[in-house]
């Protein structure tokens, strides 16, 4: 599975759509448009840059332009929504839509602020029922009415607690124009749950192991093993906090890509300061 470039080809400056299906499209992709997603039904995992975390009903995500992302629907545990249906309100909007707001920063400063922060992706875990009701209206009115509803949503979100998703360092790497590094990062993101050796990744990059280690450390500030372990720990954290799915620490260890339970415990505690069982409990 590769990283895909998708251009939404918007007929207007922004487009609202309601996605209602068994599973969201599992596609690691990016596009020039900004994307605002409200999860109304379903649970799963969201991948945004180097961020891995859960999503559930009521979550909102603001995905920046050209930021790689994917929503993977959970097929484990109790049914999500009506008979296992996943549902999300999705708004795509481009630079033309937001350009005018930069020229009126006093009135629309809240919009430009959100757009600047969206470069790493943002999540809003508890936006409230009011925002959901406004999202519902965005699919039933004309373009002018829907635009006003959308501006109201952005206004409310700016007042809510925001969580940054991808790390700025990862964003800088991906946007660096280094095609080789971007290719390597994409490969790691897609295969970190598998047995991924230094030999395999250096061969994929077309370099010997010594040269690759030097190159990767220089570009990312981390060794390949450190980078890979950070991703795996992030995935483990997400899984440990999933209340609707009961999995043993051992299962989570191997599902995250680690092949040794003792090594997993050691790396997890070094990263989070607590053991996996303590993290889950508290």
From TrEMBL:
It comes from Sinomicrobium pectinilyticum. It holds the Pfam family AraC_binding. GO terms for molecular function: DNA-binding transcription factor activity; sequence-specific DNA binding. Coiled coil: none annotated. It comes from the Bacteria. SUPFAM superfamilies: Homeodomain-like, RmlC-like cupins. Keywords: DNA-binding, Transcription, Transcription regulation. This is AraC family transcriptional regulator. Residues 182-282 form the HTH araC/xylS-type domain. PANTHER family: ARAC-FAMILY TRANSCRIPTIONAL REGULATOR, TRANSCRIPTIONAL REGULATOR MTLR.
């Amino acid at each position: 599975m590769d990283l895909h470039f998708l251009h939404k080809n918007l007929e207007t400056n922004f487009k609202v759509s309601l996605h209602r299906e068994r599973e969201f499209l599992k596609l690691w992709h990016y596009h020039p448009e900004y994307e605002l997603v409200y999860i109304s039904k379903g649970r799963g995992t969201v991948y945004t840059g180097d961020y891995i975390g859960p999503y559930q009903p009521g979550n909102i995500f603001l995905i920046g332009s050209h930021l790689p992302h994917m929503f993977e629907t959970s097929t484990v545990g109790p049914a999500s929504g009506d008979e296992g249906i996943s549902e999300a309100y999705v708004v795509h909007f481009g630079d033309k839509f937001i350009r005018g707001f930069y020229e009126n920063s006093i009135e629309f400063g809240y919009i430009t602020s959100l757009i600047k922060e969206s470069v790493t992706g943002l999540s809003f875990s508890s936006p409230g029922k009011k925002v959901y009701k406004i999202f519902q209206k965005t699919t039933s009115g004309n373009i002018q009415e829907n635009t006003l509803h959308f501006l109201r949503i952005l206004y409310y979100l700016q007042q809510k607690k925001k969580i940054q998703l991808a790390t700025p360092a990862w964003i800088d790497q991906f946007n660096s124009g280094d095609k080789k590094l971007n290719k390597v990062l994409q490969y790691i993101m897609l295969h970190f749950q598998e047995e991924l050796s230094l030999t395999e990744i250096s061969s994929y990059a077309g370099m010997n192991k010594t040269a690759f280690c030097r190159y990767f450390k220089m570009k990312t500030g981390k060794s390949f093993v450190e980078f890979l372990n950070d991703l795996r720990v992030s995935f483990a954290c997400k899984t440990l906090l999933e209340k609707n799915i009961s999995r043993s620490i051992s299962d989570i260890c191997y599902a995250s890509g680690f092949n040794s339970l003792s090594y997993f415990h050691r790396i997890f505690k070094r990263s989070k300061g607590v053991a996996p069982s303590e993290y889950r409990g508290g």
